[in-house]
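Researcher: Please predict.
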Amino acid sequence: MDRDELAAWLRLSLTPGVGNGAARRLLAAFGLPQAVFAQTEAAWQSCVTVAQARALAAVPEGLDALLEQTWQWLQADAEPARAIVTLGDAAYPPALLATEDPPLLLYLLGAPQFVRGRPFAPPRCLAMVGSRNPTAQGADHARQFARALRAAGLTIVSGLALGVDAAAHEGALQGPPDPATPATIAVVGTGLDRVYPRANKELAHRIARHGLLVSEYPLGTPPLAANFPKRNRIISGLSQGTLVVEAALASGSLITARLAAEQGREVFAIPGSIHAPQSRGCHALLRQGAKLVETRSRPRRATRRPPPRPRTRRCSTPWASTRWGWTRSWRARGSPPRRCRCGCWSWSSTARWRGCPAACSSAWAAPDSTMKK
């Protein structure tokens, strides 16, 4: 990625009022961000609102400073390695692309063989989440399950929070390192130039040596409360299943479990004492149909299968374009194909095609009366 391309992606992601959904519609209609910003305001209004088009015409405040900071961060030779994966990269994780709201940018920090190779190549990932204030038994469960599942070849995904998240990362790092796959992936709610909470600074450094740190937030982003529930969709989206170790009824871990179910992934829960408040969230999940876990073999067997398609009642439009010009999209299960604006019937249920990609994806962004309600 050159500096001009990076500047265009940062401008698109930082434009006030233009969220991921509006950005994907622009990308589907016009191509990469540099092509998006070459269009007129009237052309943008075919995809976004008038207010959003006006916001796109203005350069976001602080863009030049952030571009310089990000460019210098990427050019640093010291380990750990750094990279940015965009929605248009071939290296973008397919499992996350299949979700309803994939991030435009993923900032990566970690071992060079993972960051510079295929950062999201692990064939099997399992998310482990839970309380920030677990019982001693809950933290021990998280550590032991993570260690055993990592020994079985799974990559453990969590959020680098205190409690169960930290225990899961530590357990995954306790085994011998595997140069082929990261031991653990930490999805954080800040910029990668910061560590939050500070108590996990040493753990974050260990993850950067043997795994990956991932964030959708630009450098310098502080630990804002709204960022952490939002990043949970990435934790569940990267994984084939989510294991909740301990969680209260108001725990953010239940948000991750709900997102995993909406994405069509498996949800597991470890039961606990009926007297422990930290177990009530897990018991609620079990009543709602989550799979009860007593041994490590249950989630290990489930992650051998490829993740199912998202269980969504409305058609989402993830978009990506590689250097070869492919376009990808997913349509609602059971909905019939239709022609694009150029009369093309060439797309299928997985919708990978070369012919008229911009026209097909533009047609996809429009409402379709044939979609299932």
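Model: Residues 307-373 have pLDDT under 50 and may be disordered.
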